[in-house]
Amino acid sequence: MGAFEPATPPWQGSRAGSSDLRRCPGLARELGVFVRMQRRRFVLCPGRARDPDGTPGRVGGLGYVARVSARTPPGEDGPKDILPSMTRDEKIIEVVGTVSSLTPLLGGPLSSILMGISGDRRFDRARKVIIELAERLGVIEADREAFLRSGDFEDLLIETLQRVAAERDESKRRAYRNILLNAVRDAGQSYEETLRFLRVLEQLQPNHVEVLRAYDAEPAESNTLIGGSRRHTLGNRLHEMPAEHIDDLVVQLEDLRLTTGSLQGMVTGPSAVDLRPLITPFGRRFLMYVVDAE
User: Fold this and answer.
1) Residues 6+ away with beta carbon under 8 Å from 286
2) Measured between alpha carbons, how far is 292 from 136 in angstroms, rounded to an integer?
3) Apex 36 CA angle, 31 and 37, nearest 5
4) What is the DSSP letter of 94?
5) Mean pLDDT in each 10-residue stretch from start to end of the chain (294 residues)?
6) Residue 95 to residues 27, 87, 154, 165, 223: CA-CA distances in angstroms?
């Protein structure tokens, strides 16, 4: 963990950290929070986070220093090098500051959303995903700014982070992140369709997405089959998955309107090895939204 370089307190008229606060208006509103440790009162001040070698910290360059307030017992004044464990409010300040430094427009609604997530484990899941999202978005282009300021985006952010917080599988949490990422990149996408993507993903197991990707795999160019079975092709692509489980997942994908058409029976060679036509138009759009968009 990087060491902290003390910042000059705001009450001395210094502008230390002011550029960081201009980039992080949500954080600026929250600074001045007092924390207690061993019956001493500290105030959080903006500082420059630095790694042990003296170089600025990599994430946003924004850190905190603990300074003893006027209520500190006599003889115990001066900066403290050791911070107490962060409270939930302080963690939210840190997340909002980091996100705002990466993608300023993304930090606005975060405080109230994160306040509504209970439990440290759930909070950490949401924290990781929102920071990853900000890192991938970076500076937002002008034609997408209106979407990030809209009520549709705030509603999608709430819907997504609530599901992320409750999701135990990391691959599905990444898929939720990708849906939100693609929704921003395709600012004209229907809100209702994006919400449908979230609801469908919530019903899926990680293996469902694996099966859907197997449908989408491009056939080998060397294929010379005259005839064959689509079910045999899918089984070969998912050879580590039990056959009964594959069949169950296929039925569920069809129920969700992600795939269509029978895998049973004999068909021509090209049809047997190319399962892509069995993905519905909605399934195609869903798959494009949940795959990693690096």
Assistant:
1) 197, 200, 201, 258
2) 11
3) 130
4) H
5) 41 39 44 35 40 43 39 47 66 84 78 86 92 84 81 91 94 94 85 95 94 91 73 92 95 95 82 91 94 62
6) 9, 12, 17, 15, 51
